[in-house]
Specification:
By secondary structure, this protein is mainly alpha-helical. It has three helices and no strands.
């Protein structure tokens, strides 16, 4: 546990020393230049990756729960499958909405 704390604080210290590098203007840039277009693209990519990861987790949980529910009650498998497909479609639409937001902002 002590080694883990030491590693955490060492990484935190290194990251904190890199923060002033982001605050400085680049060489040869004038104020009011690109307004951080590259950083917006990186942030949009990271945000979309988080949305996709959350969608994949949600879809896998729905699939696992539907399989378990159909195994416990085979008579209700048709209704479970219908609700599962509806849930999967809604989750996928949220991920596609996140993709739309990424392309609209970048």
């Amino acid at each position: 546990m002590r080694k883990l704390n030491l590693l955490f604080f060492a990484v935190l210290g290194v990251l904190m020393t890199a923060i002033p590098a982001f605050a400085q203007a680049g060489a040869g840039t004038v104020t009011g230049g690109d307004n951080g277009v590259g950083m917006k693209a990186i942030a949009a990519g990271v945000g979309f990756a988080i949305a996709v990861f959350g969608g994949a987790l949600g879809q896998s949980r729905i699939g696992a729960a539907a399989c378990e529910g159909a195994a416990r009650n085979p008579g209700a498998a048709g209704r479970i499958q219908t609700m599962m497909i509806l849930g999967l479609a809604l989750i996928e639409s949220l991920v596609l909405f996140a993709l739309l937001v990424v392309f609209a902002k970048v």
